[in-house]
Design brief:
Helices cover 30% and strands 16% of the residues. It is an alpha/beta fold and 479 residues long. The strands form two sheets. A nine-stranded mixed beta sheet has the order 13-12-11-7-10-9-8-14-15. Strands 3-2-1-4-5-6 form a six-stranded parallel beta sheet, sandwiched between helices. Helix 6 runs parallel beside helix 7 and helix 10 packs antiparallel against helix 14.
Length: 479
């Protein structure tokens, strides 16, 4: 691994190599920017009117999932590429719903016709959509992770509190069996005195096999005629179009996505983070960074997140492993793990390939060890002999009253509390933000939980805020 100083110099050199593009004309009217309406109540007998940003891939899956609840009307569709193959299914399903390429235009023209907004778009694009929605009194469902930078997530948490809207991050397993089991087992004292968690995602990722020794941004290509590239870029610094930035490829690049950790961390460590009251770590150690470069994510990474003692809970370390050949050791009695858990949905680029160890976690307490998967997968006690001994002591686990989508819509109506609301999902997302910074700089980071500053690395501390938004997009950081 390169030294921290070399990593910093390399990052700064690459960051300086790209300049901001010319400003975009402001589409939002002053009427929209200046208004901060309270959320409009949705009566018990009415459906939630939903405007959907991002209607292909995961965004399209979200639209269908919301519609299947029977609790909403789809009243507006927004996507920067309405002519792309992956948007056609939703367009055909809702042929008469108004369509927009730019979410700002959608707010200008239809802002008084919808109650809530979905943001099923790339990681870096969640922030402006969510901030505008909340400032306009619209409830917001944002895919995970909440934002690409620590500061964006911080602003989103504060905005949710300020505007008093219903919010939900799209880690769908947070409304399934694992959520209710984990809470019940903590409340019953089954899960207690946890000192270590191993979290792992060892399936192939999009950037695996790329030439990291000669890493660079891809060459400029012609922009597809149907794609609004300037709007796709949103607040991020300018890049010329290349097919390796879009349709899920954005996850490969530090400028746009959050790699395997941002993609899967919110599905694997979410319940442990909430019910063990972890908050933010005080230290993040980059223990392994094979294939390190300053453009895209490593071929494999090991990160250690250290959390302090919390009330009567002991200090805890989460060790994250990604990469095909970076499989963690498992405890005796773990058992075979060759079949994929049915609770784990397909990835956006196809099925998750079975690996030596399927995505999940191992939770070590002073008395018990727990084996768990991802998303809604439930925990089991290992080894089997210990599980049999504990069987009579396990509490009854309540059933979910609603899936993640119905929970959000019921939250909009005041009927339920959103389980992954921004005050819960925000600190989890910030843990992932800090982990990505450690990857990006190949560095150990010391974090002050009170001041929310990185104390040992000036570049990393500046990157909590990130690079300045393109001219014309600063307004979203002031809403």
């Amino acid at each position: 691994m390169k030294s921290n100083e070399a990593s910093r110099r390399s990052f700064l050199k690459n960051a300086a190599a790209i300049t901001a593009a010319a400003s975009l004309p402001t589409i939002l009217t002053q009427k929209v920017l200046g208004a901060n309406p309270a959320p409009k109540p949705v009566s018990a007998n009415d459906k939630v009117n939903l405007a959907c940003c991002g209607i292909g891939n995961q965004g399209g899956s979200d639209v269908k999932s919301f519609y299947r609840t029977g609790l909403c009307n789809i009243v507006a569709l927004c996507d920067v590429d309405m002519g792309a193959p992956h948007t056609q299914e939703i367009l055909k399903q809702f042929p008469d719903v108004p369509r927009f390429k730019d979410f700002r235009e959608m707010f200008d023209k239809m802002g008084n016709q919808f109650d809530a907004v979905t943001a099923g778009v790339p990681d870096f694009a969640h922030f402006p959509i969510a901030m505008l929605a909340m400032s306009q009194g619209k409830h917001i469902f944002s895919e995970k992770p909440m934002g690409r930078t620590f500061n964006e997530v911080e602003l989103m948490i504060k905005a949710a509190k300020k505007y008093k809207v219903a919010t939900q991050m799209g880690n769908q397993g947070h409304s399934e069996a694992n959520y209710f089991q984990f809470k019940a087992w903590v409340d019953a004292g089954i899960i207690k005195d946890v000192t270590a968690i191993t979290a792992h995602m060892n399936s192939p990722r999009r950037w695996h096999g790329w030439d990291f020794k000669n890493a660079k941004y891809p060459e400029k290509q012609p922009i597809p005629s149907t794609l609004d590239w300037n709007t796709w870029l949103m607040t991020s610094r300018f890049h010329d179009y290349n097919k390796d930035y879009v349709n899920g490829q954005w996850r490969c690049w530090y400028d746009f996505g959050m790699g395997a950790l941002g993609d899967w961390g919110a599905h694997i460590i979410d319940t442990a983070h909430e019910f063990l009251h972890l908050g933010l770590p005080y230290e993040i150690d980059c223990l392994k960074s094979e294939g390190y470069n300053t453009f895209f994510f490593p071929q494999s990474t090991t990160l250690a997140f250290k959390f302090p003692k919390r009330n009567n809970m002991p200090p805890l370390t989460i060790t994250w492993y990604d990469g095909v050949d970076n499989v963690p050791e498992v405890p005796e009695g773990y058992g075979t793990d060759t079949k994929l858990d049915p609770n784990i949905p397909p990835a956006s680029n196809g099925k998750i390939q079975p690996s030596k160890l399927n995505p999940g976690k191992i939770i070590y307490s002073k008395e018990l060890t727990f084996k768990g998967g991802s998303h809604g997968s439930t925990l089991s006690i290992i080894p089997e002999s210990k599980a049999k001994e504990m069987a009579s002591k396990l509490p009854e686990v309540p059933k979910s009253t609603s899936n993640h989508y119905a929970n959000f819509l019921k939250g909009c109506k005041g009927e339920e509390v959103c389980r992954s609301r921004f005050e819960v999902a925000g600190p989890l997302s910030q843990v992932l933000n800090l982990g990505v910074l450690s990857q990006q700089l190949n560095a150990k980071l010391l974090f002050d939980r009170e001041t929310k500053q990185i104390t040992n690395n000036k570049v990393a501390n500046e990157l909590l805020v990130g690079t300045p938004p393109r001219k014309g997009w600063e307004q979203f950081y002031k809403l």
